[in-house]
Amino acid sequence: MGAILKREMCAYFSSATAYVVLAVFFFFSGLFFNFYVFAQNSTSLTYVFSNMFFIIMFLIPIITMKSFAEEKKQKSDQALLTSPCSLTEIVLGKFLAAFLMFAMCNVIYLIYAVVISFFAQPQWSVILCTLLGTLLLGASMIAINVFISVLTESQVVAAVLGMGAGLLISMMSYFVNNISIQWISAVLEKISFMKYYENFTYGILSITDVIFFLSVTALFLFFTVRALEKRRWS
């Protein structure tokens, strides 16, 4: 798994992917930080986090689109599948590389909190709790997008489908409030990512919310392993 992780991280930084993702993330987070903290004389990063949610929905597919799609297109997937690494190690290596890339983006929030501390006392409990929620949300979205990547050989298709999935997830609360059929609305509410994420933004650390995101992450990583296993024997 370590070899796969190192290989993927090198691939990110040997291409423009890492630099573009970091630049876009830092640009928009800095923009929101200026608008909602400096301009408003606020010590809260809540609005920065909430607005960055939509940027994240588009950046994660960019990070993960080449995970397996590129391997399949370049016909290097067979060498990967016949390597000494198990399928689980391959999937975990690619997932962890994408997650580390995402985590590197989120380090900027800690810098913003330190900047705030020079002028006032930041709400460290809320900031750290929201950061944890963002990382858990990101992990589940990365797992979903890695699964999408294993289903196609086109990076563009993987990115577009991933963005579509992110948009659908972000609109789940809207569907819950506007679907009149009670049982459908109840089901959608149970799987609404925003419902579980919002608690973190209030500084509330709930084991239920943590388990939800970890379960989604584990489920889609399992699906990815099964998809690879099917490809290996086809």
Computed CA radius of gyration, to the nearest angstrom: 19 Å
Shape: globular
Number of helical regions: 12
User: Strand tally, please?
Assistant: 0
- Which range does the strand content fall in? under 5%
- How much helicity do the residues have? over 70%
Average pLDDT figure: 86
SSE order in H/E notation? HHHHHHHHHHHH
Structural class: mainly alpha
Distance between the termini: 24 Å
Biggest sheet overview: none
Instruction: Show unreliable segments.
Output: none
General description of the model:
The protein is an all-alpha fold and 234 residues long. The protein is globular and about 60 Å long. Helix content is 81%, strand content 0%. The chain starts with a helix and ends with a helix. α3 runs antiparallel to α8. The protein has helices at 2-14, 17-38, 46-64, 69-73, 77-81, 87-117, 124-150, 155-170, 172-178, 182-190, 193-201, 207-232.
Characteristic key phrases:
globular; 234 residues; mainly alpha; 12 helices
Topology:
Layout: H1 2-14, H2 17-38, H3 46-64, H4 69-73, H5 77-81, H6 87-117, H7 124-150, H8 155-170, H9 172-178, H10 182-190, H11 193-201, H12 207-232
Helix pairs in contact: 1-6, 2-3, 2-6, 3-7, 3-8, 6-7, 6-12, 7-8, 7-11, 7-12, 9-10, 11-12
Please summarize what this structure is.
By secondary structure, the chain is an all-alpha fold. 81% of the residues lie in helices and 0% in strands.
